[in-house]
């Protein structure tokens, strides 16, 4: 598995495809997805955290995507997972662990000891994966639409 930094012009169609699918898995549809806003956000954040915005390649094909940042939460800097994504046929085969390991290394390199993400309460497979990898639920946000989870390095 290789992790390649996202280049918007080169990878636009693929990152949009993957992000749309993640919306569908998390929220049931893509109605909340705005392509232009997403690409602008991706471009801006990617400049700050280029090693955190990567496509995952295996056997010459893109099979996943990661979006990782550093941000402040309750007065301290934490790592934040904006997206863990694998194409459907690669899910449940141990590939997620490699994405998770990459994320932890990114956070270690950025000198944070804690990382968070938010997940839809209906995304049972993702929640199970996060719990299995040592994360814990710490509360709901956005009127119960997401669960915040935390992990430590």
Automatic annotation (TrEMBL):
The keyword Phosphoprotein does not apply. GO terms for molecular function: acyltransferase activity, transferring groups other than amino-acyl groups. Residues 94-147 form the FHA domain. Residues 1-153 form the N-acetyltransferase domain. It holds the Pfam family Acetyltransf_1. It comes from the Bacteria. Transmembrane segments: none annotated. Keywords: Transferase. InterPro entries: Acyl_CoA_acyltransferase (IPR016181), FHA_dom (IPR000253), GNAT_dom (IPR000182). This is GNAT family N-acetyltransferase.
């Amino acid at each position: 598995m290789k992790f390649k930094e996202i280049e918007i012009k080169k990878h636009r169609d693929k990152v949009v495809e993957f992000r749309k699918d993640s919306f569908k898995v998390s929220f049931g549809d893509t109605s909340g997805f705005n392509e232009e806003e997403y690409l602008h956000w991706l471009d801006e954040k990617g400049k700050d955290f280029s090693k955190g915005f990567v496509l995952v390649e295996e056997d010459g094909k893109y099979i996943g995507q990661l979006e990782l940042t550093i941000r402040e939460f309750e007065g301290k800097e934490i790592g934040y997972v904006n997206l863990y994504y694998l194409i459907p046929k690669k899910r449940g085969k141990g590939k997620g662990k490699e994405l998770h390991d990459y994320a932890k290394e990114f956070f270690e390199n950025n000198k944070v000891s804690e990382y968070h993400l938010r997940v839809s309460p209906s995304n049972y497979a993702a929640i199970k994966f996060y719990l299995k990898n040592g994360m814990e639920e710490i509360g709901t946000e956005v009127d119960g639409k997401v669960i915040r989870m935390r992990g430590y390095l």
